[in-house]
Design goal:
By secondary structure, the protein is mainly alpha-helical. It contains four helices and two strands; from the N terminus they run βαααβα. It has a two-stranded antiparallel ribbon. α1 packs across α2. The chain is globular and about 30 Å long.
């Protein structure tokens, strides 16, 4: 993806940035799996105020995800 911008993203919107060819629900589950895979990422996101049922990733959360996983 060209010029990825750190901003607020809906959880499915961000997942589809990483997995554009997948069904939105599958993309979301796959991104959640990656977040759980990377050491301490889930804990860092929660410490930064992300609620497990949040439907939106705030810019601080997106930055943490990009730092751990890389840009989409």
């Amino acid at each position: 993806m060209e010029n990825f911008t750190i901003r607020s993203y809906g959880r499915t919107e961000l997942a589809q940035c990483y997995f554009p060819d997948l069904n939105p629900q599958v993309a979301h589950r796959k991104l959640q799996g990656w977040i759980n895979y990377y050491p301490n990422l889930r804990e860092r996101l929660n410490a930064a105020g992300m609620h497990p049922r949040s439907r939106v990733y705030m810019p601080v959360h997106v930055r943490m995800i990009v730092e751990a996983i890389g840009e989409p």
